[in-house]
């Protein structure tokens, strides 16, 4: 599921279009307790006149990988985007069109007239109409083992919908769900120890869930294009709501919610297993009874 900014490369690497912000983050992360949760970074390279970041291909060696991209945090726009919208607004026709496609009634009368919205307005609308603003994360897309990518999670808001998506993504396989749960808990521990996390506002970054049919399952932190050092005067907590100026990203709100939904998916998958087992036992008993009857 490599998108526009990516190119496949040799030797188990992918190339992502270069961003100075992301490269600086990756460099710092290679020497941070979060390193085991980040694809290995091999510096940058120029190819055909374009610069790229070299990253370990997280799918290499996997058999028919299944992937889920969860965008973390209670907002996906930087505070600068909000300032820009107030001081020198640029109208985006493409974002207006994306908005209308999902909900023709979403733009205001003025926005309809202008046929444009600011980037901040679009991103904030996306956050409010998905689970981002309330749960602190949203499912961006899922790719199943047949390579088909689902992106119809734009209006997914409730915990029940998320848990159902997790069950469908893992096909209710308990060992996969349990592996994801442990990895999320380990990530939480590493974040507590991380000097990088303490000092950065993490916006628009994703957790990439990956498993395959050999039962390998892992979760990786990706996409640091909007992750920036927080001002020295601000001590970020990551677990409190955002208010203009406080710079909080709500990353830990999302992580706690996601961990709890994976936990709920585990309970539901276990119940379904018991029910199925019960039904199987029932049908075996029924067959035995019938056989006895005919003899
Ligand atoms: O997902 P949809 O609703 O299509 O909206 C996209 C995502 O929010 C992108 O964030 P991400 O790359 O984290 O997925 C964002 O890129 P930025 O990273 O530039 O904010 C795009 O802004 P533009 O690139 O300005 O179009 C915006 O159009
Ligand atoms: N190191 C990687 N190995 C394999 N696939 C990756 C890797 N990094 C990203 N991807 C894939 O590319 C998608 C987009 O990655 P991301 O870093 O969010 O790019 P963008 O900033 O262009 O949105 C992810 O959802 C994932 O499927």
UniProtKB/TrEMBL annotation:
Sorted alphabetically, which Gene3D superfamilies does this protein's record hold?
Answer: Inositol polyphosphate kinase
Enzyme Commission number(s):
2.7.-.-
**InterPro entries the record matches:** IPK (IPR005522), IPK_sf (IPR038286)
Q: What is this protein called?
A: Kinase
Signal sequence bounds: none
Q: Which family does it belong to?
A: Belongs to the inositol phosphokinase (IPK) family.
Query: Which UniProt keyword terms apply here?
Result: Kinase, Transferase
Instruction: Write the lineage as a comma-separated list.
Output: Eukaryota, Metazoa, Chordata, Craniata, Vertebrata
């Amino acid at each position: 599921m490599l998108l526009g900014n990516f190119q496949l490369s040799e030797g188990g690497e992918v190339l992502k279009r270069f961003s100075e912000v992301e490269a600086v983050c990756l460099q710092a992360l290679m020497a941070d307790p979060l390193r085991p949760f980040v694809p290995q970074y091999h510096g940058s390279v120029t190819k055909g006149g374009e610069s790229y970041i070299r990253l370990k291909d997280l799918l290499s060696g996997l058999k028919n990988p299944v992937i889920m991209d969860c965008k973390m945090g209670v907002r996906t726009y930087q505070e600068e985007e909000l300032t820009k919208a107030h001081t020198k607004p640029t109208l985006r026709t493409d974002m207006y069109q994306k908005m209308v496609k999902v909900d023709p009634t979403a733009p205001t009368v003025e926005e309809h007239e202008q046929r444009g919205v600011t980037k901040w307005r679009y991103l904030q609308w996306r956050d409010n109409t998905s689970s981002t603003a309330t749960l602190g994360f949203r499912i961006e897309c899922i790719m199943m083992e047949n390579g088909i990518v689902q992106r119809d999670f734009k209006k997914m808001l409730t915990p029940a919908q998320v848990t159902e998506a997790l069950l469908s993504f893992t096909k209710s396989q308990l060992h996969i769900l349990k592996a994801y749960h442990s990895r999320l808990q380990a990530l939480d521990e590493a974040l507590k120890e991380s000097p990088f996390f303490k000092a950065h506002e993490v916006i628009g970054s994703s957790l990439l869930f990956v498993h395959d049919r050999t039962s390998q399952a892992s979760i990786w932190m990706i996409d640091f294009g909007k992750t920036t050092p927080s001002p020295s005067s601000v001590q970020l907590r990551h677990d409190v709501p955002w208010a203009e100026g406080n710079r909080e990203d709500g990353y830990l709100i999302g992580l706690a919610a996601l961990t709890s939904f994976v936990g709920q998916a585990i309970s539901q998958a276990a119940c379904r297993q018991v029910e199925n087992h019960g039904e199987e036992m029932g049908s075996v008993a029924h067959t035995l009874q019938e056989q006895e009857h005919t003899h």
